[in-house]
Amino acid sequence: MEDEQIIALYWSRDEHAIVETDRKYGTHCRSIAWNILHSEEDSEECVNDTWLRTWNAIPPQCPKRLGAFLGKIVRNLAFDRYKAANAQKRGGGEVEAVLEELGECVGATTSAESCYFAKELSSAVNLFVRGLPEREGNIFVRRYFFTEPMEQIGKRYGITVNNVAVILSRCRKKLREYLQKEGYGL
Amino acid sequence: MNREELYESIGGIDEDLLERSEKTAASGKRVWKVLLPLAACFGVLLLSAALLRQSFFTVEPTVPTESTEPSQQPTETIQQPTETTQRPTETTEPTRETIPPISPDSWEVVYNDYTDGIDALIAAPFGYFTEKMSQEQIKLLLPDALLERTDIEGRAYYKAGNEVWYARIWMQVDGYAVGVFYKYYPTCIIESFKGIASVCGDVEYHVMEETREKKITKKKYVETETPGVYWVEEEETDEVELITERLRAEATINGVPMFFFMDVESKYAEEEKKIFKEILTAFATYPEGMPAIDEIKPMEPRNSYYYNYSLEEARKDETFGSYLPQQIPEDWDVRSVERFYEEETQTNELVIYVKPDEREGWYVWTLIAGDRTGSDTDTLQLSPELVKQYVERYEPISIGNGEIKVRIGSKWRDYHDYQWICDQLISLQNVRRYRYYEKEADKGSDLDAAYKYPITQTWG
User: Fold this and answer.
1) Is the ipTM of this complex over 0.85?
2) How many CB pairs lie under 8 A apart between chains A and B?
3) pLDDT tens for residues B400-454?
4) CA–CA separation, B449 and B396 (whole Å)
5) Which residue of A has its CA nearest to B3?
6) CA B119, CA B26: separation in Å to the nearest integer?
7) What is the dihedral angle through the alpha carbons of B15, B18, B24, B26, rounded to the nearest 10 degrees?
8) What DSSP designation does B192 have?
9) Is B2–A108 a contact, with Cβ atoms under 8 angstroms apart?
């Protein structure tokens, strides 16, 4: 079913919207949740929460890209769940590896000011990704948005894992410089 | 700001960028698929070249060395260029003139897109294997100055007769990757360069540059009722930015043609050019006798190999042959059958690329031995009518006794595509259908979900 048709179901408050969403994007969303949580049960709950949140969000919203819209929601929910589960410990897994890599780009402190700038930071990161060459930008997105393992990214783009690592390393270096330049105190 | 906040902020990346990463992934595969027929054509040409060489050299028919590892290695001797197992001393200094006159012009665009695309441009023999080079082997090929660099790794490609075909080394210097190819056999084709920009010692190097219009987007975020979800209003302005795509260089050092390349971009081009030139200088001042590519010998046991099969040859494959369809419908065109094993990545698979009728995209059947999981993707466009025509019910399948899995490549994780291909595969092979996830996996709705559970059913 086309996205427009699914969204129309949401707007008409037809519960088949969720069935069709699950059918079309269930695997996609479970994959994102799995990459972050590495738990079948948690991922499933996270995806179910995503359907609920989507149900509540549409209407009034009318996303142009349903897959990406769902991807954002499930990623946020999964990461919230991850943080709650890891509040007392530092776990392994892909998301921890990703966080470690991102740690190269930032300082270690959290301040009220930084929270205030959260939305602006998101905008800045977005502009940064847009400024990257397309392939690097895509690899950055696959790694740091979708939390995909490097092996999977390498296979996706037909390049070696080593090459992926180098490209990501270069991206992080640029991101750090960019964030410093933009005034996000590191 | 801490790393968690940064990770969360990345969650706000625009949806078009997320979608772009999916689409580009698919097109990347497609480009590679386009290269396959090209590579096959080169293979035929090279076979001709190899046979021609035979008339000049005293040769003994190659008998591929028996391998103890892996046990699944094909026992069939594939049609290969009959290179001698003895180094042909007549070609100690292969020159560009010995390369068959194939114009590389049409490859340029593809080559620019993917660094590893050069693998497809190097015409491989019909059967070869490859292995990661040891540090000792790498030392034979690199100037001492470069050995001090971190993250040097190399891979050697051997013909089936254990002869080195070419070697490739990747160096990561100050975070930048530089690739070096050592071409040993004259029939190993690597792209020629269109122009020479500079000279570094005895090494000529070429800088490709192009300009393109890059739209700079200003964004305004509008909060919605859903936490973490924002609408974006965009304003775009046009700006021309100089994009430098790639640094490339070639040199024949002590008789061995070598190729260097490095991806760069405009902002950091100067820094990268400096590193690139530094490496070229190191090679240009190679001591006499280097590089010792003819001393690169395969390590035992072989840990990877690759064959281009015909479908008939694939049917004789010990591991997978019995699972292949006995008939391919007339409107299905088998374009390529590849057998690949790599111990390092636990890869053991047979991949069949087929293209039904005139439809866009490729279908990929992958038979996988062992426990390797994951997904493979390819582009596929199906009309709803065609889906309806073939889809009776949805049942993920497995073939074999739990050691062979079937991976169907199609549009990225698309429910209907899997279903359709599964039905096709079943009908072609006339095997039974199985629902093998009924209790624990009843949440699953596609093959990926199925992979998460052990497959225990047998069939016969």
Assistant:
1) no
2) 208
3) 333 344 444 433 234 444 455 555 544 444 333 332 222 233 333 333 322 222 2
4) 9
5) A103
6) 19
7) -110
8) P
9) yes
